[in-house]
Design a protein that fits this description.
The protein is an alpha+beta fold. It has 4 helices and 6 strands, in the order αββααββββα. About 45% of the residues lie in helices and about 15% in strands.
């Protein structure tokens, strides 16, 4: 499959059953780049079928990343992208390996998610803190079973 993608001049990254395609676009050549991406994904779908696999384009997501000015120029003309013959809307953000990417790579949603996770774990520690401070303050050893496990 990597050869099929590379034959279109599209960069890609594969991890387990996920494949991410990346294509640099100039604002004045958006239509040409999107047609390359459409042809690439159609060929990937064909490769999948020839090898007894199935590509589900409905599970695909598209994200156009750029500066505010370039995004305005591109997204005013592009509201959807053809993936394996299916028109899919362009997303505002996308989760990649647990990191939420937004269109301008400013990460506000990611920062909020990390802060929320930190708060949750701090509260969890708060609930058991009294147990930890009692053991360390008295110098006592915690109770163990015969094997020496808690």
């Amino acid at each position: 499959m990597a050869d099929v993608i590379a034959s279109h001049g599209v960069q890609h990254h594969q991890l387990a059953d996920d494949t991410q395609l990346r294509l640099a676009m100039a604002a004045d050549n958006t239509a040409g780049c999107l047609s390359i991406l459409a042809a690439c994904t159609a060929d990937v779908k064909l490769w999948y079928m020839q090898n007894g696999l199935q590509l589900n384009p409905d599970k695909s997501e598209e994200l156009i990343v750029g500066t505010t000015a370039r995004l305005h120029a591109v997204t005013s003309a592009v509201s959807s992208v053809a993936v394996a013959g299916v028109e899919l809307p362009v997303a505002e953000e996308m989760k990649v390996l647990g990191v939420v990417l937004d269109r301008r790579l400013t990460f506000p949603i990611q920062v909020t998610m990390v802060a929320r996770s930190c708060y949750y774990h701090a509260q969890a520690i708060r609930h058991v803190r009294h147990l930890l401070s009692t053991v360390s303050d008295t110098g006592a050893q915690p109770d163990t079973d015969e094997a020496g496990l808690l």
